[in-house]
Design a protein that fits this description.
disordered C terminus, 2 helices, mainly beta, 200 residues, single chain, six-stranded antiparallel beta sheet
Amino acid sequence: MQHADWIRRTGPLASLALGLAVAGCGADISGVGDDVAKTVISGNASDKSVVEGINPDTFRREVPCPPLEVEPGHYLLMIHDRGKDDDPKALRYQANIENWARRCVRDGGDGVLMTVGVSGRVTPGPAWQGGEVLLPIRLTIVNTAPGGPKPVVRQLAVPVTLGAGSPAEQWALVEENVAIPQTASTKVQIALDEKGKRRQ
């Protein structure tokens, strides 16, 4: 199956092994260094590592990074059968964002290049018959200064294979070389978002 260029397919997460060098952030994460590294890259519902050979020390921040946060109201995505959003038995799956992290390096100018790592879980619902879930992830660079530039948006996606009635599966995404202005008014937001679908 082919997808558009903007979709970042993690598959076995080979890109994670190359690029998961990010520094922990987010108010719900304690132990910014090693704990975040281990959480983002470790165990799914089967207690198997998402990717092998990642040194948690690579999460240590090299240069100051703009804040990274989950966009309010977009940490949970619930997908139902069409027209049955209020029927619990029609829930196909739900996905959430659990951890997020970032690392920055100089870009040679006044900004930085950020590597963003995001992970969470997707859980099948009663109406799920098995197959591939394509989780829509939005990454937005926001300038909060009055009259600042418009937000810059990247639309990404993470494929997850989910069996009917299976336990929750962990997903993870790494997006590298995100050019960020290094200013006090800049922040980066991540979101689970699919237009026309119910979010909580």
